[in-house]
Amino acid sequence: MHPHLLPQFRAAPRSISVIAPVNTPSPVITIDGPAASGKSSVARLVAERLGYTYVNTGNMYRAMTWAVLDAGIDPASDPASVATFSASAPIDCTVTDGQTTITIAGHLLTAEELNSDPVNRAVSHVASVLEVRNALVAAQRALQAIGPLVMEGRDIGSVVFPESPFKYYIDASEEVRSARRRAQGHADQVAERDRIDSTRKASPLIIPDGATVIDNSHLTLDQAVESVLTSLKSQGLPTP
Known about the structure:
By secondary structure, this protein is of the alpha/beta class. It has helices at about 40-50, 55-70, 80-85, 110-115, 115-125, 130-140, 155-160, 175-185, 190-200, 220-235; strands spanning about 5, 30, 55, 90-95, 100-105, 105-110, 150-155, 165-170, 210-215.
């Protein structure tokens, strides 16, 4: 699959090649949920099984956070500077081989950079800035032009694609999610991230209207994926 260059976050959307007919938008499966609920793993495998493009919108916010921190801005105490910086942040998102990758000023961000503890601690603060969300939501919606998507995040079914009939919310207990973060070697507090994400004014984390809720506290990854695929099949979406 050839890379599709999306609009830079700092600019108004540029034109991109449209695969789906204009009057027939491609299906978007939205998967939302709190930190460490397992939504990323579920979304990635669902996309793989369906042959859809997988979009981790959290990495877009993580990339912006990395850039903000690299610029010496403290997002917890200076949201105004975050808003100003986001208007000209040299960030680009591309889709290659069915997944998104993100570069900053030509530098391809690694998983280690996107998931570092400083980024983990700051990402909810950056994501709460309205100007950041407006820019990234526009970029996420533009992705529908490239074909069917499985998109995961915290406001996909509620804000980005609220009209999608295929909406899921992956949840797990705070204890289970905290244990998963520790097992991954991260020190961020999921309860604090939940508080910030759920109480922010811009696109708070909620269960989208009409979403199917899956408690992933004690499911295996395969079981969670099968739950989503079974639900999609019941809604008439062709599945393997």
